[in-house]
Specification:
globular, mainly alpha
Length: 66
Amino acid sequence: MGKRLKEETRIKIVKEALAGIKVGALARMYDIHPETIRTWIRDYRDSIPAEEIPVADEHLQEMQRL
């Protein structure tokens, strides 16, 4: 039985990937297989408005906070 993440969590991870965080880093951070994240990116990238994608600088600050 696999772990199921809520759609909002999946979208958050896709936004982080689109902002420039490497899939491998996200996979380790969230303990998810990289190919799963790539699938989510394909599924969600067209439905995420560009203004909702965080700027890479904001992401670096968030990564450092974690």
